[in-house]
Structure to design on (1108 residues):
């Protein structure tokens, strides 16, 4: 289980395209959909869906897009270059300390005096945490100082032709714009002045050369970071959400009201001796009211010049798309609690009974009406009760809202839905929901244990929620003990995703910088063209992704979340845990079922009689027809001893046929044909009693009896003996070695016709052959259960790697996104993701069930005498076929190696003869191939019934127009992509920057700073500029790269022109010289021609030409 994925910067570009495809909210405009741009509509709905923030498109353009580089007009957007520039804000912010940024750099540039760039230091208390220090260190993948220096050198070389720092003037900025084809910015004098002011620290000073400030590494660092100082790097190590990081110092409505109440109370205490009791109660009620409604109404988070921006109520405890709860385990256990509640208490049988009675029968129409009504009621019941039960049990698990009222509601829900139904005095029964069942002790104990475990778990979560209310997010995040106990798994994962964003952005910068250094000539300063050339070289290279074991290893060591930033939804975790539980439960149920079935089989065919019968031959007669006995006897005073001797009422046909032969009732001397005390028996034999006769010496099968005397479990009856009432009504059922010595029974047996004797012998032989031994059934059951466990565990262990592989394939472009028309099917009908949890759960149960039944059945057929020979013959045939296939493989290998090279034949006649010979042979052999293929497909379908995470059929298989026979893998991918659109580390970082822009407005991420960072991206990642130039995905790559080639007077082209001129001069001399000198001069010209041609090819790779 693995795949090949792109490497380095090429993989980073694919992932950037992928996040653009995720963020875009419309695909109706083809050009807008494929150019990887993000407009105001996309940002608006991202903020609404992720954070519940209500903001207009106009506010997005004025507040967010204008500062991050997109502009303020209606058509402006963020292109991929501007997105990358925004993603680098946290990394660039940590380049320098605040003091170093504000230091004066007006003196002349001296390369030797430049010291290392100082890295921002975080809170010492945070660095004391070993885990946080480890997280910080393992993200340090690149030297940001070295990157900054080389990027600046490239910018200066492209703009001025020299890497030495120049005075930062408007002309220099214009030259930089022109070098990167940003000619639309040249005429914006206000922007240019702001950019110069940002680089100079806001205070311009003249130097000896007459400029304003030298554009050195210090000035460049100030230009990149002066507008983003409000970004606090310490939030990256806090166990807090992005929303809390952005608005942590902005009190919410509840905090404001509590502060106001507290200040009012203080003033009243200071101004009087006390507070009236009525006033105190009123204030307490106000506090409770404020606590109850906090977060339920719109909250203003920013009051800007363009209008208010509010946060709306989202019911985050029910959010299974992006998991906006605090604890994942809490919501997962709540889901399981509802499932168990549904299986135990939802009772629909009485509804069917009511419909049947009102309909007046069991006809087809009534059956249809009953099912329609039952399923409609079930739908309404689950749709109404499900959200209510889950919301109440999950109360207190909100990631933002803190309220003792929520905790109280959660505790009350535990008692109402989990504990109270277990109390016998509180049980009830209704047509829909019932807690009063007449179950076996095993089932009752099973549910009792499950509900007690759930109640204990819920109470633990509510206790942690109550304690959490007492502390702020900052206090919890700064304490190791509190953070581990109170943070919650989802909030902890959010902190890991902050680390993943750091790691991925640093890796992206490191991959880009590596292309500037790979094959770099000694002493070379301009690496722009070299980076483009190296990017072109690696574009087609791949590397294997992590294998099955690598995925699980990265999960346990947290690399999956801290480095890759892969979010697994709570519904998927609930489904995976259900796979384990289903494996255990199904195995237990099937084990119990198989055990009961085997015991029943053995007791039926080989067990001891529950009813013991005996009779005296002296009380018997042998009825006859024309002197021939029909094979039975009639007896009185038959003793029946046992509790099950009258458990089977006689069938009407049997009674009519035999009642005249049953002796008369000794008490009344009347016939028993109309009596209700006549019973039929199966496999019960009555033993003959008398002198010199032992138990089992002679027995007669009991057919029907009329009981006329009772004494506890002992009955006296008049019976017909000798006929089997259940198997073809066979007579002459007398067994035992002493039967021939009893004259009455011997005469009956001797009158047996010859065909009865032959049929009896055949029946006995078949019974001995057909009836399997107990060990056969036990063997089949054990093998089936073992395979069921293996199937369940296999499904479980493969779900996580398969899910991770799907996400990674989308991220690296193996599965198309931005320019793939097939990606659009994942963007519609997102409500289908509600099928995921049920599909995972019941699909796993179905796979285990089918595996157990099929494997147990096949195992039984292998050991059963009836089918063993047939299967052994099939195995022998398979061995014969496999041996010939092995011979065929050897021949094909020899012929293929000696006669074929790729698609071509070395000796056509050998290939023709061997091909026809093998073709004829395979006319017979492919029968086996077809059979094996069908079996393998059935086995694969059996195993993949629960694997909705991975398509079983190819894309074009099973699709008929708009009908898709296996649409569930597509639905599963919709769920993954929906989570990725909210939780991808890049998107999370962009969302956090949007929040900072909302909070700080123009004080954070100004246009001038964004343009400086955009130039930084242009220089470090020149291949990204095609997303800024082209809006058509059909534009040839060569033409794009040709536009990216900077200037036409590079040193490479100068060398080419000089060498081409020398070649023309040499050729001119060749025409003037004689034949004797042609060879010498031509050789020299060819050498120079080859050298010049090689340089031309190097440049042609970059600019898309093929001219030597």
């Amino acid at each position: 289980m693995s795949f090949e994925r792109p490497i380095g910067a090429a993989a980073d570009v694919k992932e950037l395209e992928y996040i653009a495809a995720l963020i875009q909210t419309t695909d109706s405009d083809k050009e807008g959909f494929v150019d990887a741009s993000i407009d105001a509509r996309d940002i608006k709905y991202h903020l609404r869906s992720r954070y519940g923030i209500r903001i207009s498109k106009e506010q997005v353009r004025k507040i967010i897009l204008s500062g991050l580089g997109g502009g303020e007009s209606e058509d402006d957007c963020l292109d991929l270059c501007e997105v990358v520039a925004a993603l680098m804000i946290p990394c660039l912010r940590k380049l320098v300390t605040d003091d170093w940024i504000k230091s004066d750099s007006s003196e002349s540039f001296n390369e030797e005096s430049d010291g290392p760039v100082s890295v921002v230091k975080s809170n010492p208390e945070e660095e004391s945490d070993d885990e946080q220090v480890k997280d910080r260190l393992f993200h340090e993948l690149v030297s940001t100082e070295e990157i900054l220096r080389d990027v600046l050198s490239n910018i200066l070389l492209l703009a001025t032709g020299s890497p030495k720092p120049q005075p930062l003037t408007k002309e220099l900025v214009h030259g930089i714009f022109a070098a990167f084809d940003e000619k639309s910015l040249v005429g914006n004098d206000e922007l240019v002045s702001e950019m110069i002011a940002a680089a100079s620290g806001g205070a311009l000073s003249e130097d000896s050369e007459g400029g304003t400030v030298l554009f050195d590494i210090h000035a460049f660092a100030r230009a990149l970071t002066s507008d983003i100082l409000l970004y606090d790097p310490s939030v990256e190590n806090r166990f807090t959400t992005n929303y809390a990081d952005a608005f942590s110092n902005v009190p919410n409505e509840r905090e404001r009201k509590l502060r106001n109440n507290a200040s009012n109370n203080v003033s009243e205490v200071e101004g009087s001796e006390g507070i009236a009791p009525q006033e105190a109660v009123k204030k307490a009620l106000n506090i409770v009211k404020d606590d109850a409604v906090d977060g339920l109404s719109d909250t203003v988070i920013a009051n800007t010049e363009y209008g208010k921006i509010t946060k709306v109520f989202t019911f985050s405890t029910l959010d299974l798309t992006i998991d906006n709860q605090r604890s994942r385990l809490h919501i997962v256990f709540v889901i399981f609690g509802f499932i168990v509640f549904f299986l135990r208490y939802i009772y629909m049988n009485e509804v069917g009974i009511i419909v049947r009675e009102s309909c007046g029968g069991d006809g087809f129409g009534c059956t249809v009406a009953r099912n329609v009504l039952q399923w409609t009621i079930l739908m309404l019941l689950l749709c109404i009760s499900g959200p209510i039960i889950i919301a109440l049990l999950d109360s207190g698990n909100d990631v933002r809202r803190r309220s003792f009222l929520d905790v109280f509601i959660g505790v009350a829900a535990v008692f109402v839905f989990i504990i109270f139904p277990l109390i016998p005095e509180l049980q009830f029964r209704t047509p829909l929901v019932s807690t009063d069942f007449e179950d076996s002790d095993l089932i009752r104990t099973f549910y009792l244990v499950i509900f007690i475990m759930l109640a204990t778990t819920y109470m633990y979560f509510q206790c942690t929620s109550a304690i959490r209310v007492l502390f702020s997010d900052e206090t919890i995040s700064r304490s190791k003990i509190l953070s581990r106990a109170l943070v919650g798994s989802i909030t902890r994962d959010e902190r890991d995703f902050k680390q993943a964003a750091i790691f991925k952005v640093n890796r992206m910068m490191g991959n880009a910088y590596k292309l500037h250094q790979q094959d770099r000539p000694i002493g070379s300063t301009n690496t722009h063209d070299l980076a483009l050339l190296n990017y072109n070289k690696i574009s087609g290279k791949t590397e294997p992704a992590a294998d099955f074991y690598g995925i699980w290893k990265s999960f346990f060591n947290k690399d999956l979340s801290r480095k890759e930033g892969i979010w697994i939804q709570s519904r998927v975790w609930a489904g995976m845990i259900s796979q384990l539980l289903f494996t255990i439960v199904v195995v237990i149920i099937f084990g119990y079922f198989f055990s009961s079935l085997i015991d029943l089989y053995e007791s039926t065919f080989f067990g001891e009689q529950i009813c013991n019968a005996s009779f005296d031959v002296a009380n018997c007669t042998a009825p006859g027809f024309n002197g021939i006995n029909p094979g039975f006897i009639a007896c009185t005073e038959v003793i029946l001893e046992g509790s099950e001797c009258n458990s089977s009422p006689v069938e009407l046909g049997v009674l009519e046929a035999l009642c005249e032969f049953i002796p008369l009732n000794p008490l009344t001397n009347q016939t028993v044909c109309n009596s209700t005390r006549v019973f039929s028996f199966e496999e019960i034999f009555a033993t003959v009693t008398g002198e010199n006769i032992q138990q089992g010496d002679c027995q007669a099968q009991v057919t029907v009896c009329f009981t006329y005397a009772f004494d506890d479990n002992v009955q006296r009856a008049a019976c017909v003996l000798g006929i089997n009432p259940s198997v073809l009504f066979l007579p002459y059922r007398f067994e035992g070695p002493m039967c021939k010595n009893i004259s009455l029974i011997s005469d009956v047996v001797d009158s047996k016709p010859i065909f009865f004797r032959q049929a009896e012998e055949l029946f006995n032989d078949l019974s001995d052959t057909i009836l399997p031994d107990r060990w056969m059934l036990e063997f089949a059951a054990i093998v089936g259960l073992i395979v069921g466990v293996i199937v369940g565990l296999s499904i479980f262990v493969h779900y996580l790697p398969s899910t991770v592989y799907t996400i990674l394939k989308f991220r690296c472009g193996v599965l198309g996104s931005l320019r793939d028309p097939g990606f659009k099917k994942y963007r519609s009908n997102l409500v289908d993701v509600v099928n995921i949890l049920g599909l995972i759960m019941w699909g796993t149960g179905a796979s285990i069930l089918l595996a157990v039944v099929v494997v147990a059945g096949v195992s039984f057929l292998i050991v059963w005498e009836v089918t063993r020979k047939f299967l052994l013959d099939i195995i022998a045939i398979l061995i014969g076929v496999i041996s010939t296939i092995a011979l065929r493989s050897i021949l094909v290998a020899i012929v293929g190696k000696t006669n074929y090279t790729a698609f071509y034949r070395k000796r056509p006649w050998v290939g023709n003869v061997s091909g026809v010979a093998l073709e004829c042979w395979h006319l017979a052999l492919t029968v086996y191939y077809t059979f094996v293929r069908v079996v393998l497909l059935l086995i694969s379908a059996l195993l993949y019934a629960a694997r909705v995470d991975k398509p079983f059929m190819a894309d074009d298989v099973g699709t008929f127009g708009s009908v898709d026979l296996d649409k569930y893998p597509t639905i599963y991918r919709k769920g993954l992509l929906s989570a990725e659109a909210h939780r991808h580390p890049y998107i999370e970082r962009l969302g956090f920057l949007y929040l900072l822009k909302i909070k700080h407005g123009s004080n954070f991420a100004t246009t001038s700073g964004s343009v400086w960072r955009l130039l930084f991206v242009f220089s470090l990642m020149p291949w990204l500029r095609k997303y800024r130039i082209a809006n058509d995905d059909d534009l040839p790559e060569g033409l794009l790269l040709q536009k990216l080639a900077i200037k036409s007077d590079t040193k490479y082209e100068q060398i080419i022109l000089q060498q081409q001129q020398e070649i023309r001069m040499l050729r001119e001399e060749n025409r003037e010289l004689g034949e004797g000198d042609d060879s010498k001069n031509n050789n020299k010209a060819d050498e120079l021609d080859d050298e010049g041609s090689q340089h031309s090819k190097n440049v042609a790779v970059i600019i898309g030409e093929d001219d030597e």
